[in-house]
Design brief:
By secondary structure, the chain is α/β, with parallel strands linked by helices. Helix content is 32%, strand content 24%. The chain has two domains: 326 residues, ANL, N-terminal domain (Rossmann fold); 99 residues, GMP Synthetase, Chain A, domain 3 (2-Layer Sandwich), CATH 3.30.300. Strand 8 and strand 9 form a beta hairpin. Helix 5 packs across helix 6, helix 8 runs parallel beside helix 9 and helix 10 packs across helix 12. The longest helix has 22 residues. The radius of gyration is 22 Å and the shape is globular. The protein starts with a helix and ends in a 5-residue tail after the last strand. The model has no long low-confidence stretch (mean pLDDT 92). The structure holds zinc ion.
């Protein structure tokens, strides 16, 4: 099933033409309505007439999260306040949040792209979707909510948290689909096991999980423990929220809704545009947004793009599951380390849980990586000798994957903080000293 065959299965040439036209219109709008962009374009000696097709994208300036912060709260909006009908904001872990605004038409586009995401995952009007993403300023909850109503599914707007109630409603209301972060999905699976609920007794069949990076191993674990097909969805509030890209049931990369968001892959160091299949930072230009259109927004997510056609029939480009973030990357003693690599190693071992915490410190001018790992119940109750052996095994496995030796600290199950949203998995103390 495809939600919007015209755009999701459009021949590429036709799609490029559409993108070019929309891009030109959008650049006209921001040039005249957003002083920030007019100035940036003038600095680069570019006028809207220079932008006629997607091949001209590279002439345009980049936008960063810092630009949004510097223009807090509404400085980058391209329409008068009277046209804005909703605002959302990112969590803003450091300093002020980034604010995004939507016109009535933006909200229509948003539910359209989320409707595509849900259809991609096989969710339709006969489904009961439990939306366990947070409702509020975060775009996850309301974003998925309106898209779900658009496809005609029955929405259970429970929001995040309240795990006991989640399980009760999942059972009583017969939820067939679950929308939340992958780490919360895993937490729900654990809570279910604790309560002796067999997922086979539930009607759950699909999960749409996003808002944080997760590995294929994590997917396998969730699929087994919740007995669902776990679909990776991708979005960020700056671009629109959920609905930017989604896997189809072939689970072979995430289709980007390119008629609204044009992707590029750049080298994060040189900012040079990379070719198909090359790994780099994902950049988006929104060509249909009215409230907050963005030129070449740097996501810091690392991935690759594939243009060959997917078995599902969609022609939309596919991005690989995010391989990490250019700014989450830890450099430890010169080695590039992504938290997802460590997660992968832990998931391959039956003795450990995929809950971990990385602590990086600098001692005597040397970086030290300590990995806290939760151990499965039955192993933790074993004798010290066995635990020491396990610790060695983790150390060896990490060493061979990362090329780096780490100090391992085994902790009892449920010691590490569980998150109902995004998990904090890295404490880098080097920046504090
Ligand atoms: Zn597909």
């Amino acid at each position: 099933m495809v939600w919007n065959e015209k755009f999701e299965c459009m021949p590429r040439e036709e799609l490029s033409r559409w993108q070019g036209e929309k891009l030109h219109e959008m650049v006209e709008r921001v040039y005249h309505n957003v002083p920030f962009y007019r100035q940036k374009m003038q600095e680069l000696n570019v006028i809207p007439e220079d932008i006629q097709g997607v091949e001209d994208l590279k002439k345009l300036p980049f936008t960063t999260k810092q630009d949004l912060r510097d223009n807090y709260p509404y400085g980058l909006f391209a329409v008068p306040a009277s046209e804005i009908v909703r605002v959302h904001a990112s969590s803003g872990t450091t300093g002020k949040p980034t604010v995004v605004g939507y016109t009535r038409r933006d909200l229509t586009v948003w539910s359209e792209v989320v409707a595509r995401t849900l259809t991609c995952a096989g969710i339709g009007k006969n489904d009961y979707i439990q939306v366990a993403y947070g409702y509020g300023l975060f775009t996850g909850g309301l974003g998925v909510h309106y898209g779900s109503e658009k496809v005609g599914a029955t929405v259970i707007p429970i929001s995040g948290g309240n795990t006991k109630k989640q399980l009760q409603l999942m059972h009583d209301f017969g939820s067939t689909a679950l929308a939340c972060t992958p780490s919360y999905a895993l937490y729900l699976a654990e809570a279910m096991e604790e309560k002796g609920i067999d997922p086979a007794e539930l009607k759950l069949k699909t999960g749409i999980f996003g808002a944080e990076p997760w590995t294929d191993n994590m997917r396998k674990t969730i699929e087994e423990r919740l007995q669902v097909q776990a679909i990776d969805i991708y979005g960020l509030s700056e671009i629109i929220g959920p609905g930017v890209a989604s896997e189809c049931q072939k689970q072979n990369g995430l289709h980007i809704n390119e008629d609204h968001f044009i992707p590029e892959i750049i080298d994060p160091a040189t900012l040079e545009v990379l070719g198909e299949g090359e790994k780099g930072e994902l950049v988006f230009t929104t060509v249909t947004k009215e409230g907050l259109p963005l030129l070449r927004y740097r996501t810091h997510d690392l991935t690759r793009l594939h243009y060959d056609q997917c078995a599902c029939g969609r022609t939309l480009v596919r991005m690989e599951k995010c391989l990490g973030r250019s700014d989450d990357m830890l450099i430890i003693r010169g080695v590039n380390v992504f938290p997802s690599q460590i997660e992968s190693v832990l998931l391959e071992m039956s003795e450990t849980k995929p809950h971990y915490l990385l602590i990086v410190e600098r001692k005597n001018n040397l970086d030290v990586l300590e990995v806290w790992v939760e151990v499965e119940d039955q192993f933790f109750s074993d004798e010290i000798k066995k635990l020491e052996k396990l610790s060695e095994k983790i150390k060896d496995n990490l060493q061979s994957t990362l090329g780096l030796s780490a100090k391992i600290k085994l902790v009892e199950p449920k010691t590490l903080e569980r998150s109902e949203g995004k998990s904090q998995r890295v404490i880098d103390k080097r920046e504090l000293s």
